[in-house]
Amino acid sequence: MVAIIVYTLYSVSYKIKTWIGLFFAFFVLIMMITMFIGAIAYLLSPSNISLAEAIIVNNASMLILLVYLFMNAKKLASNKDFSKIHIFSLSILTVLNEILMGGAFSLAYFGIKYFLTFYSAFLTTLNSYWFFYPMMAEMLALYLIDYLKSRANKELFALIGITTFPPTILNFSQWIYSSIFIDVILSLIGIINSRGLWRYLYIITAISVVSTLFIPTFFDIIIIIDMILYYVYLLNRSKVS
Fold this sequence. Notes:
This protein is an all-alpha fold. The protein has one domain (1-238). It is 80% helix and 0% strand. The chain has 11 helices and no strands. Helix 1 packs parallel to helix 11 and helix 10 packs antiparallel against helix 11. The chain crosses the membrane at residues 20-43, 49-71, 92-116, 128-145, 175-193, 200-233. Keywords: Membrane, Transmembrane, Transmembrane helix.
């Protein structure tokens, strides 16, 4: 899944030149989302009925998208620049995929006991290895691709480090305090190496890291925002008209 997302965003940045190519990028991300939703629905209530519902949702989504493609194939084949709306939409879908991936794998590992309420499901999903480390791998891969293309993104590297040491994924004091210390240092590096919006984001991220000592929710929300803007920033550099 990580490789598919990385290749999709890489294609958007460097290979896709037409709207039909962009359509297929959306198609891949949306189909992965419906797959994860179906998996979560089945794991919450395993049965032949829930399995059938998951398959129906996935197939119906695919059918709708393909019908749209065939009805607008000529228009989509034209050579068009991508707008900021496209970039933001792709970034949001990417992050949603990562969240649902974390939820599906967390549900499969921990079982339904941590998913009885929306809040507990939210915390379990966003404070798990299956959310942070696939996300970190995707961010690092895209960063390295840009680096090899001679694009310096020094303001983004500290964020990759922060996602490598999230204080909320392990519940013992040595990890919590050491990761908070590392993340605050990385945030300071990010503040030094960035300006404008990213400087403010690193300040808020540092505050959210410290706040995990009391409540993890603020950190989770800030990380989601950081991730979306990370992808927006990378895609914006080559695709915004």
